[in-house]
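Below is a filled-in request sheet from our internal design queue. Each sheet records the structural input a requester submitted and the sequence that came back. We keep these sheets so that new team members can see what a complete request looks like end to end.

REQUESTER: design group, bay 2
PRIORITY: normal
MODE: inverse folding
CHAIN LENGTH: 275
BACKBONE (tokenized):
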């Protein structure tokens, strides 16, 4: 793909790299970026030479989460904008674009590795956690401040599964950041590496994973995911998505949305929630 595309796709041997390419927006996830990742997964799935997929973000940050210009301001273009005018339409939009797209990455038949640097925030963290492995640069930070923005986290509540329930409560209620070393200590990431070596070290790991025969990798990945299903992961994700949408339509959330839509810029919206 051309460098002006919001998602870049490349292959090297048995490894494909999907690169989010909105560095000026800290790889905030708008419709085009989400569609681009989905298309890149189509390419990786169809290529029998590809055994491992790396998901990365160009620039200083992995992903700052949902593009709030689309969501807070409801400026989503075309059919999605019209759909989001009703509660049931908003539910359908987020089911398709966020839940289903993320779950596709989670269940993707080939092993996946997230290469995380800089900020990994809210939906950015949700996206990274859909990958089988996470390698963090030593400058990486993880945060989900959505509760103080009147939302019930994001669409898939990954924190209890990644951090444990008690730490997840602290993480979500305070909105505080986890640095890379603390994320490793808690089991959120597999490895922490120097920022300058992130690409090289992730590619080395991908090459090692690619030594596993594809059929074996697929069967074992599915079995491991099924273990999480038996432990209640699918049911908990479904429950939270319903709670997330109930919260969308409370007076608390609707009043906050109206107030944000009256602000003059997105900088004002963000400043409202900074310590």
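RETURNED SEQUENCE:
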């Amino acid at each position: 793909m051309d460098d002006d595309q919001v998602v870049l796709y490349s292959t090297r041997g048995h490894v494909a790299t999907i690169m989010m390419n909105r560095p000026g927006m800290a790889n905030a996830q708008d419709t085009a970026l989400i569609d681009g990742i989905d298309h890149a997964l189509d390419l990786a799935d169809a290529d029998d030479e590809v055994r491992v997929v790396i998901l990365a973000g160009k620039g200083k940050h992995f992903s700052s989460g949902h593009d709030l210009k689309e969501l807070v301001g409801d400026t989503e273009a075309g059919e999605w904008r019209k759909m989001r005018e009703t509660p049931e339409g908003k539910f359908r939009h987020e089911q398709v674009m966020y839940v289903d797209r993320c779950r596709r990455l989670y269940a993707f038949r080939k092993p996946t590795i997230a290469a995380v640097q800089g900020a990994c925030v809210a939906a950015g963290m949700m996206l990274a956690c859909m990958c089988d492995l996470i390698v963090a640069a030593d400058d990486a930070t993880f945060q989900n401040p959505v509760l103080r923005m009147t939302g019930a986290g994001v669409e898939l509540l990954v924190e209890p599964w990644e951090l444990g329930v008690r730490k997840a409560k602290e993480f979500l209620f305070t909105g505080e950041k986890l640095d890379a070393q603390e994320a490793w200590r808690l089991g959120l990431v597999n490895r922490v590496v120097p920022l300058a070596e992130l690409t090289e070290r992730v590619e080395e790991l991908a090459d090692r994973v690619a030594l596993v025969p594809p059929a074996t990798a697929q069967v074992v990945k599915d079995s491991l995911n099924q273990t999480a299903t038996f432990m209640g992961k699918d049911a908990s994700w479904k429950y939270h998505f319903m709670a997330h949408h109930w919260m969308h339509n409370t007076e608390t959330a609707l009043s906050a949305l109206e107030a944000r839509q009256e602000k003059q810029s997105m900088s004002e919206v963000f400043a409202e929630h900074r310590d």
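SHEET NOTES:
- The chain has a mean pLDDT of 92.
- The longest strand covers residues 7-12.
FILED BY: M.R.
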